[in-house]
Amino acid sequence: MERSQDLFEKLQAAGESGIEELIEARASEEYFLDFKRSADGGAGNRLSDNDRNNLAKAISGFGNSEGGVVVWGVDCSADPSGADVAKAKFPLEDAQRFRSWLEGAVSGRTSPPHQGVEHCTILVGDGPSGFVVTHIPQSNSAPHQVVGKLHYYIRVGSSFVPAPHGVLAGMFGRRPQPKVYHNFAVPPAVCSAGKMNLKIGFMIHNEGPGVAEDVFANIQVNRLYGDNCTVKFEGPDPADWRASWSFGRHLSLISRGDLKLPPGGFLQPVIMNIVIGPPFERDLNITGLVGASSSPPFEILIRNSRELGESVFQEFEGRQVGQPIPAADGSRFTSRILGGLVSSNDDV
């Protein structure tokens, strides 16, 4: 997950307490975070020109860089060290209305428009006053130019600055890039001989606008719950992948020259067969990387404590008595005992 997306989701989940934590911690404006106090507190009959201009610079600057989050309704000023830090809450008069103004202004503030901008509203008590958090992800359509001023911005430290000629030249000449990451297909767990038998489809997805070549993955089984737990891999197809194995615990693979992953495409190079049974003596830890030749790698992380693993296993055993476990519940057991996998499908 991108840093800006993670920050946006955490603030959305935490609500007003998340805003208060930023202020109490004197959080500073930095590469992925910006604070804005509305020029009129959102009390006008439209989005003020100052707020409109700040939105345009943020869309251009964050979209042309690595993405970021704007928190509307927080005052930010310099501390003794010179850093701009969150100082106080100045809630918007009507946060839902302010959000609707932002949503209506997004498409007309930059050329081309940034299609990925999203907002969430955080109300104070029962509202209507509150805050708006705007997430501007890194754009696949960059560079974005501010309409009217005709400037291109990038994020540098805690500021939006006009993009230098060399940076702009690179943006205009950049080919569409792939964005490759992993997902999992999680079928229901099956009980056999007092153990949980799991079959996990390891998926690779290209979300970017460019074709992915030299797709690769490394999977390292660092620790299983105990000596009665095993993992085996089915695949990959040698016609499509070059693969190497190390000590039955490490799989490394890269696609052959003819295999390319188009925008929006999925691959399933391997299936992980995991058998889990007591005793639960160690924490579960499986790590790795997935990516492509022109895509930054994404981390694979499957973790769970032995206590939580044993608890899920005992609950699974208890459900075996009586009626069969519904498929959806069986898939959730698979996900939970592996630390909460993201399921892309119920079938492998």
Structural write-up:
Mean pLDDT is 88; it is low at 343-348. With 348 residues, this protein is an alpha+beta fold. Helix 1 crosses helix 2 (16-24). The strands form six sheets. Strands 11, 12, 13, 15, 18 and 21 form a six-stranded mixed sheet that branches. Helix 3 (49-63) links the parallel strand 1 (33-36) and strand 2. Helix content is 24%, strand content 36%. The chain has two domains: 3-173, 2-Layer Sandwich (Methyltransferase, Cobalt-precorrin-4 Transmethylase, Domain 2), CATH 3.30.950; 180-345, Immunoglobulins (Immunoglobulin-like, Sandwich). The two termini are 24 Å apart.
Architecture blueprint of SSEs:
Layout: H1 3-14, H2 16-24, E1 33-36, H3 49-63, E2 68-72, E3 74-78, E4 84-89, H4 95-106, E5 110-111, E6 118-123, E7 130-136, E8 145-146, E9 153-156, E10 159-162, H5 165-173, E11 180-185, E12 190-192, E13 195-206, E14 216-223, E15 230-234, E16 241-246, E17 250-255, E18 266-276, E19 284-292, E20 295-304, H6 306-319, H7 327-337, E21 343-345
Parallel strand pairs: 1-2, 11-21
Antiparallel strand pairs: 2-7, 3-4, 5-8, 6-7, 9-10, 11-13, 12-13, 13-18, 14-17, 14-19, 15-18, 16-17, 19-20
Short description:
By secondary structure, the chain is an alpha+beta fold. It is 24% helix and 36% strand.
- Average per-residue pLDDT, rounded, comes to 88
Strand percentage: 35-45%
Largest sheet: 6 strands, mixed
CATH topology of the largest domain: Methyltransferase, Cobalt-precorrin-4 Transmethylase, Domain 2
Which H/E pattern describes the elements? HHEHEEEHEEEEEEHEEEEEEEEEEHHE
Quickly count the domains: 2
Judging by the overall fold, what is the CATH architecture of the largest domain? 2-Layer Sandwich
Number of helices: 7
Report the top-level CATH class of the largest domain.
Alpha Beta
The structural class is alpha+beta
Q: Which blocks of ≥5 consecutive residues have pLDDT under 50? A: 343-348
CATH homologous superfamily annotation of the largest domain: Schlafen, AAA domain
End-to-end Cα distance, whole Å, is 24 Å
